[in-house]
Amino acid sequence: MARIFAITNQKGGVGKTTTAVNIAAGLAMLDKRVLLVDLDPQGNATMGSGIDKRNLDKTVYHILLGQASGAEVRVRSARGGYDLFPANRDLAGAEVELVDEPEREYRLRQALEALADEYDYMLIDCPPALNLLTVNALAAAQSVMIPMQCEYYALEGLSDLVNTVKKVKSRLNPGIEISGLLRAMYDPRNTLAQQVSDQLKRHFGAKVYDTLIPRNVRVAEAPSHGLSVMAYDKSSRGAQSYMNLAREIVQREEGTQHGEA
Ligand code: ADP
Ligand code: MG
Predict the structure, then answer these.
(1) Which of 3, 91, 136, 222 is within CB 3.0–4.6 Å of 41 for a Cys-Cys bond?
(2) Domain count, the chain
(3) What is the number of the ligand 1 atom nearest to the C-alpha of 241?
(4) Cβ(201) – ligand 1 distance below 6 Å
């Protein structure tokens, strides 16, 4: 059964999409079966997976509207080694169109459940908002991963997100947990970043991933080639960090399973 992660933060530009694409590729390199879900109308995870968002018959929009199944929508990222539910600007209309639909919060969950036996990990790249799209991701996920930049306002936004996860847990999805906070685009020379990082560890303890993702130009260049940073420049610090993160995720997951056994 797949483990489902929502990669979310209502702030834009914190590294959600970059993280989603690179851990999808990293987990695939560890021989895991991965499905990446692009749930942002910007379609950046789609383009970053080497799939042209302008040439798609069916996207995740059709899944949410009940017009296509996951099996009909998924495409293969050949270089990434994973499957993708692609997205494009059509998705921007979904929220309004779903208003009167029954079970509108569970549309993605139902599609993922139907494919859960075919994958080890499903990763959902969320839009930068706490909207119905993000609620669909949270209603489907067992784990929430929160990429963040260690800056002053980061902590302020975090409490809104934690409260949203609590509401989803009580109303829609009792199985959801925040699995981890990821320090993305980290600059160790920045004193404020260090202070915010220390504060995060005090508040969230072991929920902060040990792996740090440094700011690295190769990470920023890779998506314009439709590649993960590992495929683009395997020896870069960005590639090594995202590979370490993929390993840390697997270790944590397998650790949990042993703990329960
Ligand atoms: P989000 O999905 O949260 O909006 P993105 O993943 O799109 O954020 O990242 C925002 C911008 O920062 C993008 O241009 C991306 O290429 C760049 N970026 C993300 N992570 C890094 C990194 N570790 N080093 C350098 N640039 C990065
Ligand atoms: Mg994004």
Answers:
(1) 91
(2) 1
(3) 23
(4) no
